[in-house]
Write a structure and sequence with these properties.
The chain is an all-alpha fold. It contains seven helices and no strands. α4 packs across α5 and α5 packs across α7.
Length: 149
């Protein structure tokens, strides 16, 4: 259980007592306003209603511009797994993925070489390695277009 979930669980009786407490309309106004505001932000974020939709659009644009400039972001714990296992997990053919890396002058010592070691050895980023493995031999991003010569 997360800390937030544990706090809600442990404080649930206090929260219910606060809500059920007989108060004048003015004293319950902050609770009502906060619930309405929370509902507005949640629904607005989901359906991208202004201004949340505009903020989401700005965040997407910033993320895409950083990906264009720096490549795909690192993939967290996946970086510790071998190249062949990552390729299989992503639905790519491991042999073709290693061949793509080799065509792009990336030295792969073994299919069991972790991505972090591969990136360090070849002085590149994990994101660049993943980008190379996901592209087809003609430079597109759809591996389904691959044809054997």
């Amino acid at each position: 259980m997360s800390c937030y979930g544990g706090a809600c669980y442990l404080n649930w009786p206090l929260l219910l007592a606060y809500v059920k407490k007989k108060k004048s309309g003015y004293e319950s106004l902050p609770l009502a306003v906060s619930l309405i505001l929370t509902l507005y932000v949640c629904v607005g974020g989901y359906y991208e209603i202004p201004p949340m939709g505009q903020l989401i659009g700005i965040a997407r644009a910033c993320r895409m511009s950083s990906i264009e400039e720096y490549g795909s972001p690192p993939y967290g714990a996946a970086a510790e797994y071998p190249v062949s296992q990552i390729a299989r997990y992503m639905g790519w053919d491991p042999e073709k993925s290693i061949a793509k890396l080799t065509l792009n002058h990336i030295v792969v010592k073994s299919p069991n070489q972790p991505l972090t070691d591969l990136a360090r050895t070849n002085r590149t980023t994990i994101g660049r390695l993943m980008d190379i493995m996901c592209k087809d031999l003609t430079g597109g991003a759809n591996e389904g277009k691959l044809t054997s010569p």
